[in-house]
Design goal:
Distance between the termini: 125 Å
InterPro entries: Cell_Proc_Reg/RNA_Proc, FHA_dom, SMAD_FHA_dom_sf
CATH topology of one domain: Tumour Suppressor Smad4
Structural class: alpha+beta
Pfam family, one: FHA
Organism: Hyaloscypha bicolor E
CATH class of one domain: Mainly Beta
Number of strands: 13
Shape: extended
Protein name: SMAD/FHA domain-containing protein
Order of helices and strands: HHHEEEEEEEEEEEEE
Helix content: 10-25%
């Protein structure tokens, strides 16, 4: 028969005491760290992988503000010169400004008497500023009666409804006088200042007291 003597009482108490001391020291080490929030504890119960307490997140960096400040718009109102001066622009294209489609070949013939001095391909751009200020205009007109920024030929996309309620859009040329000193004539009639007037094929334009005639043609 084997000797089934009971274990020593001292050794068992020693083992229990050491296990308690180990768990107490483990709890002390855990207590030194930050306690998890209620949301983190709830998440840990649902997902054991989320039981680790996350370190404190660094403060979020301030994001750059992309809101319009108006500085770009203010800068676009003038054109800087090489000598440090700037020229204030009297005209800016509207929201409906469009370049005419390729099928519409608008041309402007410049006449002096019976002679054609120049042919301008208007369809190349959406806006033509006419005047004596060579630094900013698109079409130079050097007669002294013409203002520095005299008038504009502007192509605009205009949308209208037909009798069935369908919207039909088309790019058309318009003429606007920029409150010039000596005015603009369209087919020998004075143009009201600061108002768009639609141009049509074979219209004739005159600026100031210049004898040159600008005839619009749609090829």
């Amino acid at each position: 028969t084997r000797d089934r003597s009971p274990p020593r009482r001292g050794s068992k108490e020693k083992d229990v005491r050491s296990s308690r001391e180990g768990s107490a020291s483990q709890m002390t080490r855990k207590a030194k760290g930050p306690l998890p929030s209620q949301a983190a504890s709830f998440q840990a119960n649902k997902d054991p992988s989320m039981a680790v307490v996350a370190a404190e997140e660094p403060p979020e960096k301030q994001k750059p503000s992309l809101a319009p400040t108006g500085l770009l718009a203010a800068a676009s109102n003038s054109v800087a010169q090489s000598d440090g001066t700037s020229i204030a622009l009297k005209y800016h294209e509207p929201a409906e400004a469009r370049k005419p489609p390729g099928k519409d070949d608008w041309k402007l013939f410049v006449f002096k008497g019976a002679d054609i001095l120049e042919t301008i391909e208007l369809s190349k751009r959406s806006c033509w500023l006419i005047g004596r200020e060579l630094a900013v205009v698109d079409m130079a007109a050097e007669h002294p009666s013409i203002s520095k920024q005299h008038a504009v030929i502007q192509f605009r996309y205009i949308e209208k409804k037909n009798e069935f309620g369908d919207k039909l859009g088309k790019v058309k040329p318009y003429l606007i006088d920029l409150e010039s000193a000596n005015g603009t004539l369209l087919n020998k009639e004075e143009l009201p200042p600061s108002r768009y007037l639609e141009l049509r094929d074979k219209d004739m334009i005159q600026f100031g007291h210049s004898t040159r005639e600008y005839v619009l043609m749609l090829s």
